[in-house]
Each structure stands twice: as structure tokens, then as C-alpha cells.
Amino acid sequence: MTKPGLSILVLLLVAASPAVGPARSQTGMPADVAKQLAAFGTEFDGEIAGQTAKIYASQPRVYDPARIKITKNLAYGPHERQQVDIHVATVRRSDRPMPVVVVFHGGGLVGGSRAATANVADYFASLGYVGVNGGYRLAPDAKWPEGARDVGAAVTWLKSHAAEYGGDPEQIFVMGLSTGAYHAATYVFMPQVLLPGTARPAGAILLSGPYSFDFKSPSKGELVYFGEDRTRWPDMVIPGHITRGDVPVLFTTAEWDNARYLWPQAAVYKELIDKHGARPRYRQSLGHNHSSQLLSVGTPDTSVSRELVDFIERTVKR
Prior knowledge:
Layout: H1 6-16, H2 31-40, H3 46-57, E1 68-75, E2 83-89, E3 98-104, H4 118-126, E4 130-134, H5 146-161, E5 167-177, H6 179-189, E6 203-207, H7 220-226, E7 249-254, H8 259-276, E8 281-285, H9 292-295, H10 305-316
Parallel strand pairs: 3-4, 3-5, 5-6, 6-7, 7-8
Antiparallel strand pairs: 1-2, 2-4
Helix pairs in contact: 1-8, 2-3, 5-6
């Protein structure tokens, strides 16, 4: 498949930040963590994801988990995976409704669970926000575009229930990593595939999403989710099909992301600018690999979390 947007990607990467050594002292990433992540290189699979999770399991937290109240397994749909967990601080910092941040995990379209992103919901709850850890159906139970519809259904449910937890129904932000970012991006940019009445988000944070794929060499998850009719595949990717470009969005990629995540990101970014006049925000997460971006949230390494919070705060103030 032709890989558009590479020229703009070069500009984005150059503008993001100057290249430095593996210690990355200015980001707060511990030198030993940076060294281990760099050693993995740009390849990424389940084994590396597991090793990355082990690295971060021992990292200190900037919040006290005992001060977070979690209401688990709230259903927004009939399937067992159509559930969210809502995280709030035990002591509210403000009487005004707070932004809601709902995060969706990755997993290659056929795997993953909310356990991988609980720290993200915890962290935002510790700041006084309403943190939401979202689940969605996996292939083969759900095929395209059901992942995006689940994201939309979760936001629609939260719009009706966020106030019960101190959240602002008008300030619901969706966040996704990898497959979660793909589903969230389809929901945000392609409302034509959603069910009628699906709520609109206040903004989106999309981390290393596979917004398109190599049609000649699809992964097992892509084959299962997109189906065997290859003639339909070109209509199921984000590049070339964006019909909504006015939702504020922050894109990130990781320094150690494989190129399969970079060129679709650049293509989507370019399309938003050229065809929709949008001003999307972009950040390269230096020192990070595909999964460490969200694993670092809530640790002393604020290189990712500060960008997420700044985007939300600036969007709320618009």
C-alpha cells in the first residue's frame, strides 16, 4: 500500500524535540529504564509488551492508590466487555464538575484488557478528574466498525452518568493506545459509521494508533477484525475517510515505534490539515516504546502525562 504523509512526518519528528542520549534526563525517565527500552529497538510484540510492563511495575507512583475509589464493571452495553470502571478521588478538590477522561487499551484487535490501563484512570482521578477505564469487544466477537461503536457507546453512556461521579458531561475526553487509538480515531473522525445518537467527545488523545495497515501482509488480528473480503479493506482505514475534523486532538507516537505506526499517523495528520483546516497537536514521546507511554503515566516520569494534562486543560479553557 502506498505510504502517504512521510514528508510531513519528517517535519513533525524534527520539530518534536532534539535527539539526545538514552538517559533522557530532561524527561524524567530513569536512565536504566531508558536503556532497557532502547535495547528493545523498534520491534514490538507480546513478549516485549510483557517485559515493558515488568519494568514499570516497580516504578514509584506519584499518587496514593488508597485515595482512589473505583466503581467497577459498569455496563454500557450487553456484552461482558462493554463495561467501564470509574475512578475518582476519595476527597473531591472542587465542587464544580470536572473533565472526564476515558482510556481504551491496546491489544492487536483480538486481545488486551482494562488491567493494562488502570494506572491511567487512577492518575487522572488523583488530579481531581473523573478517570474512566474502558473496555470494548474484541474480534472475532466484534468486527469492523464495532470497536469504534463501542467507544461511542461508552461516551454516550458517560454523558448520561458522568455527573453522578462529579464529572462534566460536556467535557468527556477519549484516549486510546494502539488498537484503542484506532477505535477511538474511527469514532472521532468517521462518524458516518457510528450508530445514530452517538455522543460527541470534547477531545481525543490518540497514542500510537495503527490507523491503516499493510494490505499485502495483514496481521492475524487485522484479518479477523476486517474480514476476508479484501475489497472492503481500503474503506476501513482512517486515511482518506475523515469526515469530522473539528474535534480537538492530540496525537503521539513513541520514539521506538515501528514504522507501521508512523506513516499512517502522518497521513491522518496531513489529511486533517489539508482537507479540514484542523490544527491537530502532535508529540513524539522520546525514550518510549509502543506501550511504555501509558505505563509511565502516574510515575515520576512526566514526559507523557504532562503533555496529556496540558492538552486537556487547554482544550477545556477554549
